[in-house]
Amino acid sequence: MVLIWRWIMSILFVVVNAVVMAILGIVFLPWAVLSPQGALIACKSYTYWVQFTARWLVGITWELRGDVPGEECLIVAKHQSFLDILIIFQAVPRPRFIMKRELLWTPIIGIYAWRLGCVPVARGKRGAAIRRMMEDVRSGRVPPGQLVIYPQGTRVKPGDYKPFKVGSYVLYNQLGQPCVPTATNAGLFWPKGTMLRKPGHAVVEFMPRLEPGMAQAPFMAHLENEIEAGSNALMREAGYDGELPKARNA
């Protein structure tokens, strides 16, 4: 009976938030087209709405730990769920995400991604996309902010392992900015591939910064060790008792 009720409330949660996303997207669209600030306020408003409905409909709360980056930096984050995207977006002042180029052609969402300064990346052309982003920031076409990349390239279920890709180091090296490794346990409560939401306390933790100038091998090893160990600790804290992956880039 409890599981049936969770399914009912989860479906309600998903439907309500899809409707609100559409409404906010349309209402804010003229402002978003005219100004990146309009797009930013619309999307941050949506995260607060989701935070409210997550608590009251499906019993999910969330928390930030560590020093929230406010300066220009590269955030390299564990990606388990759409929830960790929302938490990071709400937390940092000017978030920009590395995203698949195809999303630019998604109705309404593509316009918001463009106005926020997200970086569309075509397969095999990451370097050109980053150079264009840096040119846009210098020219003032895109406001400076916090660039977010998911080092494993996709959402990874709790307990699964996927190798960290070298693209994180390429960005770190090209940008010359601090890197903030970021851990999470969000996938325990907002799982990949299902509408079922599970009650609990999701955490995103910003870990100590890595200053510019590290060589590739030690950077990648430190990054993977920190993010995997931090995420594993958060999952254990939340009661996860399954097998956890170990960093393989030590």
Task: Note down, in words, how this protein is organized.
The structure is a single chain. The protein has 2 domains: 1-58; 61-94 and 145-237, Glycerol-3-phosphate (1)-acyltransferase (3-Layer(aba) Sandwich). It is 47% helix and 15% strand. It contains 8 helices and 7 strands; from the N terminus they run αααββαβαβαβαββα. It has a 7-stranded mixed sheet, sandwiched between helices. Helix 1 packs antiparallel against helix 3, helix 3 (36-58) crosses helix 5 and helix 6 runs parallel beside helix 7 (167-175). The relative contact order is 0.17.
Spell out the helices and strands N to C: HHHEEHEHEHEHEEH
> What topology, given as strand order, has the largest sheet?
1-7-6-2-5-3-4
The whole-angstrom Rg is 18 Å
The span between the termini is 46 Å
Q: How many structural domains are formed by the residues?
A: 2
* CATH-level-2 architecture of the largest domain: 3-Layer(aba) Sandwich
- In CATH, the homologous superfamily of the largest domain goes by the name Glycerol-3-phosphate (1)-acyltransferase
Shape: globular
- Overall average pLDDT: 89
Question: Strand tally, please?
Answer: 7
- Describe the main β-sheet briefly: 7 strands, mixed
Structural class: alpha/beta
Q: Helicity level, as a percent range? A: 40-55%
Summed up, the helix count is 8
**Highest CATH level, the class of the largest domain:** Alpha Beta
Strand content: 5-15%
Q: What is the CATH T-level topology of the largest domain?
A: Glycerol-3-phosphate (1)-acyltransferase
Query: Which spans have pLDDT < 50 for at least 5 consecutive residues?
Result: none
Pfam families: Acyltransferase
GO molecular function: 1-acylglycerol-3-phosphate O-acyltransferase activity
InterPro entries: Plipid/glycerol_acylTrfase
Protein name: 1-acyl-sn-glycerol-3-phosphate acyltransferase
